[in-house]
């Protein structure tokens, strides 16, 4: 597979495993991951101008306005490390974002990870994230060796404040309303690849690798 030139977006509801699979692809194949969620959380943590604007939106489980989101992605995509390849994890999330992306970058595939709503709540309420390196764990499906401590860097694991049940419900309704229409959008452009996101992560990763390999050969 030619990973030198592979521009992908990862679609799917919150908790579908987009971050987990992107990180596996980054580690194993070297594709750079761009996560808008990580960028917004970093801005909130550093209390930048952007962070102050988006803090309450993230906490409520809503979507950041398109204008702001498009601007940070456009800027990030101008860096040299993503000239040939990238995974956009969590962008686009609206039709307006997808239209904007089409103006400044060409895609090889839009990968949709399918997971039903009932599994999502289990995944998100058990999610733990490393404060230092961003590694993703789950209390049941991917527990760290020592509770509360990152296996990779020894950093502290925390619960995202938007992973509580009420906020998850708001995020899911935003997903169904604003983001799900992108499946049809990319299907029409013949770049859609659907992956069952419900089995274990290694199985999902292998399905992704095999499908993307066939897809890019076409
Ligand atoms: P998850 O991985 O659970 O789907 P993310 O880390 O991708 O969540 O996103 C966290 C939050 O950041 C979202 O709930 C939303 O408020 C904001 N966000 C991330 N990406 C976008 C985007 N493309 N458009 C608007 N808001 C976004
Ligand atoms: P997203 O980025 O789509 O919001 P994450 O990759 O952060 O999703 O995964 C959400 C939670 O589910 C995390 O706790 C992660 O460890 C767990 N998880 C991800 N993929 C799987 C999988 N295939 N099987 C079981 N648990 C998973
Ligand atoms: Zn860590």
Polypeptide structure, described:
This protein has 218 residues and is α/β, with parallel strands linked by helices. It has a single domain (7-117, 165-216), classed as 3-Layer(aba) Sandwich (Rossmann fold), CATH 3.40.50. Helices cover 48% and strands 15% of the residues. It contains nine helices and eight strands. The strands form two sheets. A five-stranded parallel β-sheet has the order 2-3-1-4-8, with helices on both faces. It has a three-stranded antiparallel β-sheet with strand order 6-5-7. Helix 4 (66-76) runs parallel beside helix 5. The longest helix has 17 residues, at 201-217. It is globular and about 45 Å long. The protein starts with 6 loop residues before the first strand and ends with a helix. The model has no long low-confidence stretch (mean pLDDT 96). It binds adenosine-5'-diphosphate (2 copies) and zinc ion. Residues 12, 14-20, 123, 126-127, 136-138, 141-142, 200-201, 204 line the site of one adenosine-5'-diphosphate (ADP).
Q: How are the SSEs placed, and which strands pair?
A:
Elements: E1 7-11, H1 18-29, E2 33-35, H2 36-45, H3 49-60, H4 66-76, E3 86-89, H5 95-104, E4 109-114, H6 117-125, E5 127-130, E6 136-138, E7 157-158, H7 165-179, H8 181-188, E8 192-196, H9 201-217
Parallel strand pairs: 1-3, 1-4, 2-3, 4-8
Antiparallel strand pairs: 5-6, 5-7
Helix pairs in contact: 2-3, 4-5, 6-7
One adenosine-5'-diphosphate is lined by residues 12, 14-20, 123, 126-127, 136-138, 141-142, 200-201, 204.
């Amino acid at each position: 597979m030619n990973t030198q030139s592979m521009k992908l977006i990862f679609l799917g509801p919150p908790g579908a495993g987009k971050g987990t699979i992107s990180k596996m692809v980054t580690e194993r194949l070297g594709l750079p991951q761009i996560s808008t969620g990580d960028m917004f959380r970093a801005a909130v943590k550093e209390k930048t101008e952007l962070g102050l604007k988006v803090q309450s939106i993230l906490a409520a489980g809503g979507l950041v306005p398109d204008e702001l989101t498009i601007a940070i992605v456009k800027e990030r995509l101008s860096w040299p490390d993503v000239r040939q390849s990238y995974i956009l994890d969590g962008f686009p999330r609206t039709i307006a974002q997808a239209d904007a992306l089409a103006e400044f970058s060409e895609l090889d595939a839009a990968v949709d990870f399918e997971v039903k709503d009932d599994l999502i709540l289990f995944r998100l309420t058990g999610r733990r994230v490393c404060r230092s390196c961003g590694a993703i764990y789950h209390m049941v499906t991917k527990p760290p060796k020592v509770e509360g401590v990152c296996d990779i860097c020894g950093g502290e694991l925390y619960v995202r404040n938007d992973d509580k049940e009420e906020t998850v419900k708001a995020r899911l309704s935003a997903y169904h309303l604003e983001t799900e229409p992108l499946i049809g959008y990319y299907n029409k452009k013949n770049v859609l690849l659907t992956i069952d996101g419900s089995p274990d992560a290694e199985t999902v990763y292998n399905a992704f690798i095999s499908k993307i390999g066939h897809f890019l050969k076409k």
